[in-house]
Amino acid sequence: MTVKLPPLREVIARHGLSASKALGQNFLFDEQLLDRIAAIPGPLTGEHVYEVGPGPGGLTRALLRAGASVLAVERDRRCLPALAELSEAFPGQLRVIEGDALKIDPFAEIGAPFHIASNLPYNVGTALAVGWLGGDIWPPQWKSLTLMFQREVADRIVAAPASDAFGRLAILAQWRSKAAIAMPVHRSAFTPPPKVMSAVVHITPSAAPEGVKMSVLEKLTAAAFGKRRKMLRQSLKGVAGALEALEITGIAADRRPETVDINEWCALARCLS
User: Fold this and answer.
1) Are 8-205 and 214-272 the same fold in CATH?
2) Do the bridges between strand 198-205 and strand 142-150 make them parallel or antiparallel, or are there none, so unpaired?
3) Which of 96, 156, 201, 250 is most exposed by smallest CB count within 10 Å?
4) Where are the beta strands (DSSP E) in 1-157?
5) Are 164 and 142 in contact (CB under 8 A)?
6) Class of the 214-272 domain?
7) What is the dihedral of CA 205, 209, 214, 216, to 10 degrees?
8) Percentage of the chain with pLDDT > 90?
9) How far apart are alpha carbons 93 and 117 in whole angstroms?
10) Which stretches within 104-147 are classed as H helix?
11) C-beta contacts of 157-163 below 8 A and 24+ residues apart
């Protein structure tokens, strides 16, 4: 179904909207770019999509055009009238909740597996991603994550061992998922332009290594990367059994945490799980 929609700039002007720095907002107007982002998860006809911080609905309209049923969570009530217009244009495809995404369980709201696609507000993006990637229950209720981050955060998510960006976020995103940068996005694409470049990261769940608990992996990496300049024998000595686990796994205690690859972190966590 082809729905004729007014340009986003016209919608924003008509509703008197401006991006809120306090809410970490930066609006995207380029409809071709938005359609490319909406295509990253794959065919969306009949699929459920959860979107956080839709603002005036730029990405939302691209997801709806792609055939998705969208649940959008927006805490800025100024944007609700513009989203209500989208809901009328795509009957039965869009439901909007006014609220804080950090306090909402999307599976409880949708009741079925779903994709997550969002131009995340900069001030809560990492916290939301960590929540979606965490927990001991796996596979997750989401099918994929297609998320816009500041480029620095995106690089940390996909970082390889022994790189400066490699740390807890990379391990969390990669130990039972596949993470890749799907596309860079120049700062000039946003209104207002942020001070930094951005990138869209695409994450899909994969099989979790057997015998590894997320809670144990989290404890290990928190201790190690909390003192990332220290050798493992120093940074892990406060974690019960960790030094013995180093011996059992054959991981040298004089290594620094960023040199330990994800399989080795999983081996350590398996020893302690």
Assistant:
1) no
2) antiparallel
3) 250
4) 27-28, 48-52, 69-74, 94-98, 114-119, 142-150
5) no
6) mainly alpha
7) -160
8) 81
9) 15
10) 106-110, 125-133
11) 157/129, 157/201, 157/203, 158/201, 161/258, 161/259, 161/260, 161/261, 161/262, 162/258, 162/259, 163/258
β partners of residue 27 = 191
The stretches in the chain having pLDDT less than 50 are none
Sheet strands (E) in 120-269:
142-150, 177-185, 190-191, 198-205
Q: What would the CATH number be for the domain defined by 8-205?
A: 3.40.50.150
The pLDDT, as a whole number, for residue 17 is 79
85's tokens: 């217009």
Model pLDDT for residues 138-178, shown as the tens digit of each residue: 999 999 999 999 999 999 999 999 999 999 999 999 999 99
Can you tell me the distance from the alpha carbon of 143 to that of 3, in angstroms, rounded to the nearest whole number? 27
| pLDDT, position 11 | 87
What pLDDT score was predicted for residue 210? 96
The tokens 């939301």 sit on which residue?
128
Give the integer Cα–Cα distance in Å for 138 and 129.
Answer: 15
Structure tokens at 7: 């340009």
Count of CB atoms situated within 10 Å of the CB of 216: 21
Q: Six-digit token pair at 62?
A: 């691209």
Mapped onto helix, strand or coil, the DSSP state of residue 219 is helix
Residue 195: count of CB within 10 angstroms of its CB: 7
**Backbone angle region of 51, left / alpha / beta, with phi > 0 → left and psi within -120 to 50 → alpha:** beta
The CA-atom distances, in angstroms, between 163 and each of 146, 222, 251 are 24, 18, 18
249 neighbors 271 (Cβ within 8 angstroms): yes
Q: Are 84 and 95 in contact (CB under 8 A)?
A: no
* Cα 130 to Cα 49, 84, 147, 187, distances in angstroms: 18, 30, 12, 24
Amino acid identity of residue 257, one-letter, is P
